[in-house]
Amino acid sequence: MELKELAPFKSAPQVTEQLQKYGINKSYAEGSVIIQEHNYINSIPIVLSGSIRVMRVDDEGRELLLYYIKAGESCIMSFLSGLHQDTSKIKAIAEEDTELLFVPIEKVSLLIKEFPEWLDYIFKLYHKRFEELLEVVNAVAFKKLDQRLLDFIKNKSSLGNTKEIHITHEQIANELGTARVVVSRLLKQLEEEGIIQLGRNKITLV
């Protein structure tokens, strides 16, 4: 995919040129791990096509979904870790077949100094991710699990632009940080209420 197709830089061709000059394109199949926790960040990923889910993993291996990164966006957590020469605090996985542009961290710093459009892009990403993280905190602290589950299904549906999502109960449990048996029970309850239809590793929003 051509970088010129990315909306954030259509009005800033000079930034696009620099990203194209310094960046390296890589493709990942659905389910591939792109960023692993505790690894040092040497380059920043920008999503050209597809999407990424960003997870937080605790010491016991339990995962919690933080947010999704869509085409034209990047991971602000990677920005911060890379700029401060720190290790990654998140795990990033390809939600679908995804193409990325990796920009070396030293070039990221250079672009910040030279182009206000690039700095504005980073601030907008930071603001969006911060709001999404607040939503996660709000959901975990105040929402019942059945509402979190329904929100999760709707977000997956919206991300793929389809009412049918292919996912196992185990995967949902991992992303919501709960047990599979609890997810299965709540999904059955949603089906009985006529909100969803269940199939083999498949959920359809009615």
* Proportion in β-strands: 25-35%
Shape: elongated
| Average pLDDT rating | 87
Radius of gyration: 18 Å
Which percent bin holds the helix content? 40-55%
Number of helices: 7
C-alpha end-to-end distance: 34 Å
Secondary-structure arrangement, i.e. CATH architecture of the largest domain: Sandwich
- Physical arrangement of strands within the biggest beta sheet: 2-6-4-5
Notable traits:
3-stranded antiparallel beta sheet; 10 strands; 4-stranded antiparallel beta sheet; Arc Repressor Mutant, subunit A; 206 residues; 25% strand; elongated; 7 helices; alpha+beta
Structure description:
The structure is a single chain. The chain has 206 residues and is an alpha+beta fold. It has two domains: 3-141, Sandwich (Jelly Rolls), CATH 2.60.120.10; 144-205, Winged helix-like DNA-binding domain superfamily/Winged helix DNA-binding domain (Arc Repressor Mutant, subunit A, Orthogonal Bundle), CATH 1.10.10. 45% of the residues lie in helices and 25% in strands. It has seven helices and ten strands. Strand 9 (196-199) and strand 10 (202-205) form a beta hairpin. Helix 3 (105-114) packs across helix 4 (116-142), helix 5 crosses helix 7 (180-192) and helix 6 (169-176) crosses helix 7 (180-192). It is elongated and about 55 Å long. The mean pLDDT is 87.
In short:
The protein has 206 residues and is α+β, with helices and mostly antiparallel strands. It has helices spanning 13-22, 76-83, 105-114, 116-142, 145-160, 169-176, 180-192; strands at 24-28, 33-35, 43-49, 51-57, 63-70, 91-94, 98-104, 164-166, 196-199, 202-205.
